[in-house]
Hints:
Elements: E1 2-4, H1 12-17, E2 21-25, H2 26-33, H3 37-45, E3 53-54, E4 60-62, H4 64-79, H5 84-106, H6 110-164
Antiparallel strand pairs: 1-2, 2-4, 3-4
Amino acid sequence: MVMADVAGSGQQNAAAKRRFSPLLTIEQVASRTGLTKRTLRYYEEVGLLQPTGRSDGNYRLYSEEDVKRVERIKELRDLLGFSLAEIRVFLEADDEREQLREAFRQESDVEARLAQLERCDALIQRQLQLIEQKIAGLEQLRASLQARLARHAQRRTELLQLLSSPNE
């Protein structure tokens, strides 16, 4: 682990909150998340993940928030089967909601706060829509497999009847 004054790219708000926080190397993040260093670099290349900072030797350094983001990416990819494009949309909504949450805390105007809540709701609705699309696809796949099982059961019954009836 590296203790560093975080001057950041990417998630600057989170980095600013944790100046002098312990940072992890790419090897440590890979080990903790079960991903390869290559995968982490790829996520950076496609804009899903930005290291909090760089060491004096220009090595990537990651915060605990970065690790949580990697785990979120893994969850969306592995558990829900999201593509990287869908993950990007999902994470962009998370990021915007976090910015809105911070602005909401600092805002005193009621109308502005209501507008921020409305925008958060729209972002959440978009995320729910992505999840519901995945669920619908999974339900279709399940129905298709259940129909195959039912057809196999019918064929099995027919074949067993042929075996048990005397040859005439």
